[in-house]
Design brief:
By secondary structure, the protein is α+β, with helices and mostly antiparallel strands. The chain is built from 7 helices and 18 strands. The radius of gyration is 24 Å and the shape is elongated. The chain starts with a helix and ends with a strand.
Length: about 350
């Protein structure tokens, strides 16, 4: 039975990797992205979905309809005109950010992606915006530079890939007008307003590059960067720490005492689950067997650990028994060690 579970876990993590690969822009889509970056600059790639997709992403958020409406300003007016002009050669399109030579044969490129000039619907579902953010400033300031037209088609092997992009400064100043309640705004200026919903999908500085691994990470990163708090971000083992906790140092034997198999459930006994903790020198590795989830846990107290996504694991010894509280944004679970 154990080898079946291990096989399922391997399949799960491969699936997660593939999902993340779809979210992360491919290197071939933004050649030379780091060239010319100053120490105070960050390349900031954000994904902007159309109104329908935006509405799904902000469900439960106050004024969710407003997000959808704002996305439609872009996707129902200016963007289709831009796509047609790129396909017809009126506006130069580039394979990726950093490219200096435009795409020469859009007919062939469209064929490779499985579409046609009369059927470019997969290009109207999402775009990616490449901007430079000045991270040494107290307040958020960015310069939008490149708009990537993304091919979104669940039936295509190219789904999530950049089809073509345009440098915003090359667009005519009074063309591709985006209709808003504040009046018509040229597309090249519209992205400076940020009157739309977006998610960061990739960041790069001269010393770091990173893609958010979850929507929670993306939301957290967006909020911090927008508030000018880039320098206050916390990192653990090369990944973003959104827990709000800071790691302390523990000796291996201090960590080892919490290792073992624990059974946890809600206080009423429902949703019983098994967690196996393995000591990893200075932190714990939690294996949620039923959830197929592995989490690195870092100490912030001699008997308390946090995961990068904000879950808290609080251990306490009662007589000879080790007990555990798990606090997440959805549940509070309570249990005890049942084996080592």
């Amino acid at each position: 039975m154990r080898h079946v579970i291990d096989s399922l876990k391997w399949t799960f993590w491969v699936w997660i990797f593939l999902i993340q690969a779809c979210l992360r822009p491919l290197d071939s889509d933004f050649n030379n992205e780091g060239t010319g970056l100053e120490d105070h600059e960050m390349l900031w790639i954000t994904r902007i979905p159309n109104g329908d997709l935006a509405l799904k992403e902000v469900q439960g958020v106050q004024d969710a309809e407003r997000f959808s409406t704002r996305q439609n300003y872009l996707f129902q007016s200016a963007l289709p005109s831009l796509i047609e002009d790129v396909l017809n050669g009126k506006i130069e399109g580039y394979a990726g950010y950093g490219d200096k030579k435009p795409i020469e044969n859009f007919r062939e490129r469209m064929k490779q992606f499985g579409g046609s000039r009369l059927n470019y619907a997969p290009l109207t579902k999402a775009v990616e915006l490449f901007s430079i953010v000045y991270v040494n400033e107290a307040q958020y300031r960015s310069k939008p530079e490149f708009l990537s037209l993304v091919w979104e088609d669940a039936n295509s092997s190219h789904s999530g890939r950049a089809f073509a992009g345009v440098y915003l400064d090359s667009l005519p100043r009074n063309a591709y007008l985006v209709k808003t309640p504040q009046g018509n705004i040229p597309l090249r200026d519209f992205f400076k307003t940020e009157w739309f919903h977006y998610q960061p999908v990739y960041i790069r500085t001269n010393t770091l590059e990173y893609s958010p691994r979850s929507r929670a990470e993306a939301d957290f990163l967006r909020e911090k960067v927008k508030n000018g708090e880039w320098k206050n971000l916390e990192w653990e083992d090369g990944a973003l720490n959104i827990s709000g906790q800071r790691r302390i140092d523990l000796e291996p034997e201090q960590v080892l005492q919490f290792a073992g198999n624990y059974q946890v459930a809600h206080y009423d006994g429902s949703d019983s689950q098994s967690i196996f903790f393995t000591a990893q020198k200075d932190h714990l590795l939690a294996d949620w067997e039923e959830r197929f989830e592995l989490s690195h846990l870092y100490p912030f107290h001699v008997s308390s650990f946090f995961s990068r996504n904000g879950d808290l694991y609080l251990f306490e010894r009662e007589n000879e028994e080790m007990r555990l509280f798990v606090v997440t944004d959805r549940d509070t679970l309570y249990g005890k060690r049942v084996g080592k």
